[in-house]
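Field log, afternoon session.

UNIT: design team B
ACTIVITY: writing a sequence onto a fixed backbone
BACKBONE:
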């Protein structure tokens, strides 16, 4: 079962990598072939770099791959640090939960079996510690899911914003404005204006 899952993961990863790196290679057009109509787009035209859908799909398959597709390599360690930290706390809290759960079962069995916390914690303490570890484990699972979803959203938004125009032709200026009041006198009022230069 794990081998089949590993094979499927590798196949999907390779297909995603092929789609990403296929956009990087240039092809020369053959002048002998007739031109295609404008309404039919090739795969390369439809998914031209940067493409937010490809970036999002890459991050769904392998966290951080969408950031690599968007050439934001500095974000990849942040993604894996968040996932690794959440995974560490999931594992640690689960181990502590199982330890307290086993001790509680031994303490409440008939006859009573001495556990590793015998003389340290009461039964109420064991129940409280077990519940606390379960709660922290669940919070860590939600944190891992949040980091994973944030990785997908970041890849999608970053892929869309790469096409956003941030040139000097568009600017926001603060300038005073003269406007008449009810008595016909002109007063200066602050105002904002969005300027597009052609």
């Amino acid at each position: 079962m794990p081998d089949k899952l590993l094979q499927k993961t590798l196949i999907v990863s390779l297909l995603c990598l092929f789609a990403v790196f296929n956009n990087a290679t240039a092809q020369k057009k053959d002048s002998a072939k007739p031109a295609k109509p404008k309404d039919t787009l090739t795969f390369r035209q439809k998914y031209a770099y940067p493409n937010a859908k490809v970036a999002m799909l890459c991050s769904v398959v392998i966290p951080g791959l969408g950031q690599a597709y968007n050439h934001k390599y500095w974000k990849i360690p942040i993604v894996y640090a968040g996932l690794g930290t959440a995974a560490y706390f999931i594992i640690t809290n689960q181990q502590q939960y199982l330890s307290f759960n086993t001790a509680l079962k031994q303490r409440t069995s008939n006859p009573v079996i001495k556990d590793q916390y015998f003389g340290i914690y009461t039964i109420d303490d064991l129940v409280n510690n077990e519940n606390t570890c379960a709660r922290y484990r669940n919070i860590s699972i939600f944190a891992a899911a949040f980091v994973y979803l944030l990785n997908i959203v970041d890849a999608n938004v970053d892929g869309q914003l790469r096409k956003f125009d941030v040139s000097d032709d568009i600017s926001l200026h603060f300038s005073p404005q003269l406007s008449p009041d009810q008595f016909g006198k002109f007063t200066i009022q602050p105002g904002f204006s969005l300027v597009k230069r052609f």
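LOG NOTE: The beta strands are 170-180, 186-196.
NEXT ACTIVITY: expression trials, pending approval
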